[in-house]
Amino acid sequence: MEKSVSNDFKELYKLYYDKAEYEMNEVRLDIKSCNICFPENSKIKVFGSGHPMADLFIVKSTFTKREGDSNIAFFGKSGDAIKKSCEKLNYNYSNLYGTDVVKCFVSEEIREKCFKNCSKFLKLEILTCQPKLILSMGELATRTLDIIKMEDDEEIEFLPGNIFNFWLEIKVLVTNDLVKSFYDLKAKRQVWNDIQKFFKM
Q1: In this predicted structure, what is the pLDDT of residue 2?
Q2: What is the pLDDT of residue 9?
Q3: How far apart are CA 48 and CA 57, in angstroms?
Q4: pLDDT digits (tens, 9 = 90+) for 142-178
Q5: How far apart are CA 46 and CA 66, in angstroms?
Q6: pTM for the structure as a whole
Q7: pLDDT at position 144, please?
Q8: Which residue of 33, 48, 63, 74 shows the fewest CB atoms closer than 10 Å?
Q9: How far is CA 39 from CA 27, 33, 109, in A?
């Protein structure tokens, strides 16, 4: 009897997983074809990566050159930093989902315009994944989450170390920008403290 229940659960889980993976692929196709900010279409696009039904969801503001070269969020130094954190805290890295707010390679001058347009993609990623907790890395990521929150939800502010309520009973933990923390010891300490909190919640 227990074996039958276990097999039923596995089959049901696979159905949900396949559905989530299909929906994430649809989001990637939408990102790939988007030309709202660039009528000529930007050739450099970066897509979220990881488990499509992750309980823990990480979002940072923009991507690095290495991420742009690979078209994958959290590739290279950013991904290595999160992987090392997972190893120290005995968490399986493959159970995470990570993404960037801005999906195209853009200059700081037009980032304000782009992050608002890209907010719809982040919303779709969260709706598909339905995580329990989001780690918002950086001011731009936090502002984007505040844009897509429900009308009655509390304001999500860039206050590293603070936790906010989001829709679907999701919690948002705010921290510093990951890339900036590589060059700022104080910011790095804050990120590490928040990452420890993130994996223990």
Answers
A1: 45
A2: 83
A3: 10
A4: 999 999 999 888 899 999 999 999 998 999 999 999 9
A5: 10
A6: 0.92
A7: 96
A8: 33
A9: 19, 11, 17
Residue 161's CB is within 10 A of a number of other CB atoms, namely 12
Residue 191, pLDDT score: 97
Q: Which residue has the higher pLDDT, 64 or 189?
A: 189
Q: How many CB atoms lie within 10 A of CB 101?
A: 27
Ramachandran bin of 91, using left for φ above 0, alpha for ψ from -120 to 50, beta for the remaining angles? beta
Strand pairing category for 56-60 and 171-175: unpaired
Give Cβ neighbours of residue 114 (< 8 Å, ≥ 6 apart). 37, 102, 104, 106
In the numeric block, the tokens 């994430």 are attached to 24
Alpha helix (H) ranges present in the chain?
Answer: 2-33, 65-70, 77-88, 108-129, 139-148, 178-181, 185-200
Q: Is 2 exposed, middle or buried (0-12, 13-18, 19+ CB in 10 A)?
A: exposed
Residue 171 three-state SS: strand
Q: At 146, which amino acid appears?
A: D
Token output for 64: 């690095």
Q: CA-to-CA distance for 149 and 167, rounded, in angstroms?
A: 7
